[in-house]
Amino acid sequence: MPASIAGDDFRAPGVELFDFPPLWPGAPYWLTKPVVLAAVGVVLLCALAWGAFARPALVPRGLQHLGEYGYLFVRDQVARPFIGADAERWMPFLLSLFSVILLWNLLGVIPGVQFPVNAHIAFPVVFALVVYVIKLYLAFRHHGVGGYLKSLMFPPGLPKPIALVLYAPLELLYTFVTAPFTHAVRLFANMFAGHLLLAFFSAVGFWFLVEQPTVLGVPVGLLSVAMAVVMTALEIFIQFLQAFLFTMLAAMYIGNALHLEH
Fold first, then answer.
1. What's the number of domains the chain is made of?
2. Which range of residues forms the domain containing residue 71?
3. Is the separation of the CB atoms in 247 and 105 below 8 Å?
4. Residues in the chain where the model's pLDDT stays below 70
5. Which segments of the chain does DSSP mark as H helices, in order?
6. Is the residue at 109 inside a domain?
7. Which family does it belong to (predicted)?
8. How far is CA 8 from the centre of its chain?
9. Is residue 12 part of a domain?
10. Is residue 105 a contact partner of residue 194, using CB atoms and an 8 Å limit?
11. How far apart are CA 144 and CA 142, in angstroms?
C-alpha cells in the first residue's frame, strides 16, 4: 500500500493476534483468553441445552425448537448417513461435538469477544485426538488389530503384491498420520485465516476513517469497512460449515471403524 495513502505508522495485524499471555501477572501460563472463552462457551452451551429441554413441551417453541432442529440436523445429515443403524447411540457425542465447535467458532464474530476458540491449534488437536482414539478403539475392539490392519492394507480385488508395495504404505500413512492431522488442521486453518482477514479489514477501515483520515484514504477505509461486513457474513457461513465438516468426518471415522465394508 503506498505510503502517501497509508502513512508510515500503519501496521497490518499479524500472528501476534493469536499470542495470548496469562490473564494477569503470576497467573498459570495456560490461563489465557482462549481457555476462558472455551470454558464460558461450554457453560453457555449447557445453559442453552438446559433451557431447551428442562421442561420439554409437546409442541416445541423457542430454545426447544432450536435444540430439536439442531438434533435432527446432526442425526439426519451426519450420523445416519455415515453410521447407519448405530447412529442414535452416537448422537450425544456427535451433537455435543457439533454444538461446541459451532459455538466456539461463532465467538469470533461476537463484538467484544471476537476470537474463535478453534483458531488456537490446541483445541482442534484435542478434538481430533479424541475422535482418533475412539476410531481406533472401535476398530480394534470389533475387528481385532490384525483384522483391521488387513482390511486397510489389502482391499478386495487388489493383487496382494501391488497392495503390499504401493497401497498399504499409503493407506497406513493416511490412517495413522495424515487423517488425524488434517482433521485438526482443516478446522484450525479456516478459523485462523478468517480471524486474520476480519482483523485486517477492520484495522484498515479504522485507520483510514478514524486514526489517519485523508482524501485518498477515506475511500479505502470505506471499502475496507464494506469488506469487513461481507467477510463477517462469509465467516459465519464458514464457521457453520467447518463445524459440520469436522463432525461429519468424525461420524465417517466412527462408521468406518464399526463397519469395515463402508
1. 1
2. 20-258
3. no
4. 1-8, 261-262
5. 3-6, 33-53, 62-74, 80-83, 87-106, 122-153, 160-162, 168-173, 179-206, 217-258
6. yes
7. Belongs to the ATPase A chain family.
8. 37
9. no
10. no
11. 6
